[in-house]
Write a sequence for this structure.
């Protein structure tokens, strides 16, 4: 008895999104601030500690931190800002709200709920992001730093961004400490002040939270958990959507790479649905 | 070595110029991000609106559930859909569908509405069709008994609440959705050449082959 009760209530519905959507500009301010913060900090870093070390023959620091890490961080940040998660568009209203719809995944039943706005039974882990105002498949969370929903399609890039930020912060911190140590005999001038303290503080402050975030997300991906979902007690620890650690990582990093959703939806319906017949309506 | 390090300091004017350059870069970056976010939201709404128009035109029907299932089956998950007709339609079919006593014993009374409102009352058991539903599936006017041997899944008896839609505990929805515009949106002319932006997200799609392969 307990088995089925534990298996069913998989939908988390107690999130309270804002009733009045905030203006687009207001939501984008934090994302703009994140991008703006990255530019001057990196500029100061490359202009002072890296320049000092490079002019004294330490080319490894600017080479490592410049091209791979900064480019990787900035490009993943830009991509995550403007990439689309898996957005589910409106259904064809073929089934109706009174149709009982249950999805079985690895012998566990998910009782699906009808969404009147999108005209289909909502698949497991599919939620309406209240900030982006879209329905996202496999919603992980809404990242306010990039003002975008993180779903299955861009969760890998979110992990890449956090990882690259950790590596960049660590490299900047190490470079700045090396610069400080080697210039201890110099007076505290403009270069030393700007090039060391201003560059050392942000990476030092962000490094620990970023590392904690990276570890938490890595654990979530490994165990197929999602932040937007309750941590239900499944069947004695059995998680129906868990493919194993390697499978979960493969699902997160590789399953999202493919064509856009709409073309993919039509192709998949045709491939797996021998009984599917396109319905041609007279309405236009 | 020490004299070398002292000589490497930047002149003050260069520092000022560099700070000005950094400020300019920051402003440009922030402005670009704000503009691109505005454009991203606008594009999402346009795509959603175009999608609704395509659906209205009846070019095809699609099932997000089927897409969801097939996508996971490709990666090794054992997934299937069970759908059943509305509870009121199949009340008389209860005895036929309750033919498997094993599964009756395994199902608690609160099984089918565990995710529903707790104040809901049990009305009648609702059988399921243990078959993969492909494409549009209308509710059966006269329920047919299902052969359990033909299904990989056992038939479960769901105790469903009549006329109690599964929306009682949905999060509050917004009045307008970018991905699901309201049906009251002003009508626009359906321009099928705009389908490229729907299919690939870039501009390399032709509507005719898209429709013809259906």
């Amino acid at each position: 008895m307990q088995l089925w009760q534990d298996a069913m209530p998989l939908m988390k519905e107690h999130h309270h999104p804002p009733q009045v959507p905030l203006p687009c500009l207001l939501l984008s301010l934090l994302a703009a601030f994140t991008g703006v913060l990255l530019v001057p900090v990196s500029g100061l870093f490359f202009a002072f500690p890296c320049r000092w070390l490079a002019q004294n023959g330490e080319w490894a620091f600017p080479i490592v931190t410049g091209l791979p890490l900064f480019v990787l961080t900035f490009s993943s940040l830009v991509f995550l800002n403007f990439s689309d998660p898996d957005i589910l568009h409106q259904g064809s209203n073929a089934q109706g709200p009174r149709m009982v719809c249950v999805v079985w995944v690895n012998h566990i039943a998910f009782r699906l709920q009808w969404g009147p706005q999108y005209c289909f039974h909502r698949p497991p882990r599919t939620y309406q992001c209240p900030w982006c105002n879209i329905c996202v498949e496999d919603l992980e969370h809404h990242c306010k730093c990039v003002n975008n929903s993180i779903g299955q399609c861009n969760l890998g890039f979110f992990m890449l961004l956090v990882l690259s930020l950790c590596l960049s912060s660590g490299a900047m911190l190490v470079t700045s400490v090396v610069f400080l140590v080697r210039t201890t005999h110099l007076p505290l001038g403009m270069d030393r002040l700007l090039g060391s303290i201003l560059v050392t503080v942000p990476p030092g402050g962000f490094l620990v939270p970023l590392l904690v975030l990276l570890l938490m997300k890595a654990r979530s991906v490994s165990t197929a958990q999602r932040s937007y979902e309750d941590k239900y007690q499944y069947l004695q620890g059995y998680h129906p959507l868990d493919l194993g650690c390697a499978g979960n990582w493969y699902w997160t990093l590789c399953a999202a790479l493919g064509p856009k959703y709409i073309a993919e939806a039509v192709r998949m319906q045709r491939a797996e649905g021998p009984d599917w017949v396109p319905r041609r309506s007279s309405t236009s | 070595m020490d004299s070398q390090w002292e000589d490497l300091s930047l002149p003050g004017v260069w520092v000022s110029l560099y700070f000005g350059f950094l400020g300019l870069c920051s402003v440009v970056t922030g402005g670009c991000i704000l503009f691109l976010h505005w454009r991203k939201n606008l594009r999402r709404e346009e795509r959603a609106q175009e999608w609704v128009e395509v659906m209205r035109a009846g070019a095809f029907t699609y099932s997000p559930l089927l897409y969801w299932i097939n996508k996971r089956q490709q990666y090794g998950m054992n997934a299937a859909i069970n759908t059943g007709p509305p509870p009121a339609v199949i009340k008389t079919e209860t005895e036929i569908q309750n033919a498997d006593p094993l599964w009756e014993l395994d199902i608690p009374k609160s099984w089918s509405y565990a995710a529903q409102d707790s104040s809901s009352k049990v009305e009648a058991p609702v059988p399921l069709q243990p078959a993969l539903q492909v494409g549009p599936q209308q509710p059966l006017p006269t329920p047919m008994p299902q052969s359990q041997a033909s299904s990989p899944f056992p038939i479960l008896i769901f105790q469903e609440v009549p006329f109690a839609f599964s929306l009682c505990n949905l999060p509050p929805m917004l009045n307008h959705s970018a991905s699901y515009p309201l049906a009251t949106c002003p009508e626009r002319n359906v321009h099928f050449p705009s389908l490229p932006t729907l299919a690939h997200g870039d501009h390399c799609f032709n509507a005719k082959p898209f429709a013809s392969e259906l």
In short: The longest strand of chain B covers residues 79-84. Residues 88-165, 181-214 of chain B have pLDDT under 50 and may be disordered.
